[in-house]
Amino acid sequence: MNVIHLSVECYPVAKVGGLADVVGALPKYQRKLGIDASVVMPWYNKPYIQSHDFEVVAEGGFYQGSQYLNYIVYHHEETNLGFSLYLIKIPGYLDRSEVYGYEDDSEQWLAFQHAFLHWILTNNIRPDVINCHDHHVGLIPFLLKNGNDFRELSSIKTLFTIHNGQYQGWMNWSKGILLPGFDTWKWGLLDWSGSINPLSSAVRCCDAYSTVSEGYLGELVHEAKGLESLFVEQAYKSHGIVNGIDPEIWNPSKDPLINSKYNARTVKSGKRKNKEAFCENNGISSDGLLLTYIGRFAHEKGADILASVLDNFYSNNENKLTIFILGSGDSSIQQDIENVFTKYAPKIAVYFGYNEALAHEAYAASDVILMPSRVEPCGLNQLYALKYGTIPVVRGVGGLKDTVLDVSQENGYGFVFNDFTIESIVDAIQRALAYYSKEKDWSVITRKAMSLDFSWEKSAQKYIDLYNQLLK
């Protein structure tokens, strides 16, 4: 079976969030299970691309509206990736230094999708399945079935994987002229509430769609930024498959990015060594519980009340608690966090931005990770944390609900709260502090956490089973 994963992110080439980690791991584990899986993504002016060799395997061109665009397809077969990687470069669109944040993002992703289809059509490439990841490539299922130039490709099966339904790629219909030619009477498959909506189009036109956890699949029928009725209507072809993590990258027993390696047997001493080094490097105390937040400063992540939570906690508690925050995003949220940092330093340390090595160090050093999300399709941070014996304090939503079991339940290993309030979050942190004071109990849940298996093998097989269903 030949499967192409189509995405605008893939670790380690270009990473903004969890999408990159998934696309950088899933095809590798599918290949280990006997599937010929590869990744196709845009070319970016990134260090990984600059420092590795690529060969040109195809060139071509097409019209996007009245503009003629040339593209080049590069191939990279690197053993450390574990899969074949193809990059599509289009001067002026797919040759930039960042993944997102441009005014013409929608035109950029249109060009990527058009170039991809033109390439596989003219070079007689016929995968069995195209696994499209998120709205950036959400027009592929529609164009395969209805594009005038792509009728030869219509038998290819498509799986559309939703990593975050909050982002749907809305476009004004004035940009419809940029689309490849299609059966115009099918325009309704592109439209949602008067706009072109790539995510809704993908859900309607794909052969099946998946979400990155079962919990999130159930939530989409209640909260999906206006697409709730669509997910009810299309539920017959939906599947929930929880993400995994790559233990070759996220493993404290062999992680080259952490100060001191450890395993479940040596977790106590190992975390202590990492914690002491980490806290010294970041100017905070290693006494007491170290709580970390890693993620985007975004409304859906609950980051907008993070400063208020910390202010409330420190104003009303004398407990030993040190906070480390690693993230970036909304400027007003960042300012609030900077204000609370100024107020309570050195109890709080902050790094604005994203640093992969620092994230690994934080997971290895921290006792607890906080994820107060409003929306969390799967969440990978809690899975990384568990692998490092770092206990999650999470809101019971989406994939967090699927992967974290509260300590109040049999074999529990985390602290789960349900109400999105400052009081609920503070109470959950207090519960973690109380548990942490019981050294024997804390040792039990850290070892339990490290014993859990959230590796990609199981999830990769579920994707393969789904592909086989589509081909039958």
Automatic annotation (TrEMBL):
Residues 277-447 form the Glycosyl transferase family domain. It is an enzyme of class 2 (transferase). HAMAP family: Glycogen_synth. This is Glycogen synthase. Belongs to the glycosyltransferase 1 family. Bacterial/plant glycogen synthase subfamily. CDD domains: GT5_Glycogen_synthase_DULL1-like. Residues 2-230 form the Starch synthase catalytic domain. Keywords: Glycogen biosynthesis, Glycosyltransferase, Transferase. Gene3D superfamilies: Glycogen Phosphorylase B. ADP-alpha-D-glucose binds at residue 15. Its EC number is 2.4.1.21. Synthesizes alpha-1,4-glucan chains using ADP-glucose. It catalyses: [(1->4)-alpha-D-glucosyl](n) + ADP-alpha-D-glucose = [(1->4)-alpha-D-glucosyl](n+1) + ADP + H(+). It comes from the Bacteria. Pathway: Glycan biosynthesis; glycogen biosynthesis.
